[in-house]
Amino acid sequence: xSRDKAIEWKEILKRRLATSKKDEMTEQEKKDEEMTLFTxxxxxxxxxRRDRSYxxxxxxxxxxxxxxxxxxxxxxxxxRAVFLQRKSRELLDNEELQNLWFLLDKHQTPPSIGExxxxxxxxxxxxxxxxxxxxxxxxxxxxxxxxxxxxxxxRISIMQFFNYVMRKVWLHQTRIGxxxxxxxxxxxxxxxxxxxxxxxxxxxxxxxxxxxKSFYSFYVCTAVRKFFFFLDPLRTGKIKIQDILACSFLxxxxxxRDEELSKESQESNWFSAPxxxxxxxxxxxLDKDHNGMLSKEELSRYGTGTLTNVFLDRVYQECLTYDGxxxxxxxxxxxxxxxxxxxxxxxxxxxxxxxxxxxxxxxVFALNYFFRAIQEQMKLHGQEPVSFQDVKDEIxxxxxxxxxxxxxxxxxxxxxxxxxxxSILIDLNGFWTYENREVLVANDNDSSADLDET
Length: 454
Hints:
By secondary structure, the chain is mainly alpha-helical. It has 3 domains: 94-173; 185-276, Recoverin, domain 1 (Orthogonal Bundle); 292-438, Recoverin, domain 1, CATH 1.10.238.10. It starts with a helix and ends with a helix. 61% of the residues lie in helices and 2% in strands. Helix 21 crosses helix 22.
């Protein structure tokens, strides 16, 4: 036997002996050996080092100061104010925006499209170099690609880009402005916070110059309710600043800065003086006993005075009242729901009233319960009542719910017919309009034809 073979056999015997010894080890000995190996590798690979331990996880939660911790509260307020000031200084001011426009105009790339100046990507990068550090965030390939449409030369509109920058600057300015009223510093505004913001905004809106100071509190209440009705559907009493910025309400409110705003725009804008006076004037006219509150009988004259008693009963059962009477704030929610029946938040309000059994859906019983009141009103007006079976079938055909026997809020929203369905069930005038829709359309067409001929 050669020497190499003897060594090979020796190694084989050693391995076999080691294996046999391992088999003879008790369960406890095996566990101890595994633990020893685990500890060895855990330490070697660095997982057990102090610099990677739980003690060095960055802190992500900071307790808010309690009411009696005055010093901590003051410190927090001051630090937030400094932070917001710094953020404000990072925004482009008017002079810097003018300079940006001058640079964009100087580096435009011919030919123009009509009167619209264009710029290619090379010119875009040249402007980026000269515009300064504050503009750097706007001059990215992503922004350029977003604004690139169908130009054959691969250019973007200078005006579109500048409007994009202006919009971003405005959003950041508004975010900072709203954050100054965020007393809690948590990214949301409570009702009192938004009231303070709008109250201090009034003097900066020329369209509100004619408002009496005694009306300011009612105006603020009217304006704030729209934000909270649509942006706080769960009625938590607070709305995110991000949600305020994302919706169009703030645009409508700040539109009142325009001194030449048309009469039509004012009438369609909930925040305008004529609109606020209209809503408050309606409330005063309904309040016959002048006690500042509305009873069910007084509210029954709302609009065309054709809301059913059954529906009004549900309003006073579900909505906040004081000794059975409704205050102005609750009235505003009522008006916002009925004037915006296509909106999900308004449908949610009405659906809650229609869902008499609180089941989360409307069945044939609920539909019949409300439509009976419509039939009774038709009899009072000398009209032949329509069959509920026919109306029920039409409603289910319009909504096309997932369950053929139940209509959920989501079904109503998805169908796009929620406003029509609610009008059929709660308002005689709404039902009459639906029943005579073909005649009304024909009359409108005839009127249009007559106007065309003249």
